Amino acid sequence: MKLIIANKTYSSWSLRPWLVLKQFGIPFEEVLIPFGPTMDDPGWKRAVADYTPARKVPSLVDGAIAVWDSLAIIEYIAETHPELPIWPRDKAARALARSICAEMHSSFTALRGACPMNLAWVHPARDRGEAVAADIARITEIWRDARQRFGAGGDFLFGDFSAADAMFAPVATRFTTYSIALDPVSAAYVEAVQSTAGFKAWREAALAEPWIVSVDELDEPVLTDFRPNLSRSRAQT
């Protein structure tokens, strides 16, 4: 299988199926196509179109089969590897996992817009508005509920790592990047996700990337710069 992704520093959608493949030890070939100067760059879209008619990442190519969209890819991986607990085995847990993944997929636009995924920086805490606060409250409510009901067997939402954790991984990074205060259960969960071998490998590769996407580089104070050799104003290459 080939997984087509974009910059690991910024591409939250790419992270999700990549993390599933890595955490469950499924062999695949990574094809990284760096974003152009803008998200609508025609050259980038032409390159991605070789793998998906949607002209977006991620996309999975498995022989003659092409699957795109993070959640569709994860479902395909789970269907292709039924021996792996990519979704929780328990019926009630699996129903909740699919529901919260769909909610993650379609919701939380205020948080996405105000706090784009960017693994290179940590920004100081500040008020980001009522809509963002409402998104954070709902996400952490989801996490606490899943952990309380089904998380007793491990550190993740349903005990062991599952598709749900991959779907929420980009949000976990945002909470770190933007110094968002969390309740103890949610803070421990963010730490668990970012301590996985898969996420550590992704982040290490992200910090080695030479590309800057200006739309995801907020013009605000920075507490920590994890890429000191790169200028924030450096042009996309």
TrEMBL record:
PROSITE patterns for the chain: GST_NTER (PS50404)
Entry-linked Gene3D superfamilies: 1.20.1050.10, Glutaredoxin (3.40.30.10)
CDD domains assigned: GST_C_3, GST_N_1
InterPro entries in the record: Glutathione-S-Trfase_C_sf, Glutathione_S-Trfase, Glutathione_S-Trfase_N, Thioredoxin-like_sf
Domain GST N-terminal, residue spans: 1-85
PANTHER family in UniProt: MALEYLACETOACETATE ISOMERASE
Annotated protein name in UniProt: Glutathione S-transferase family protein
Organism (species): Bosea vestrisii
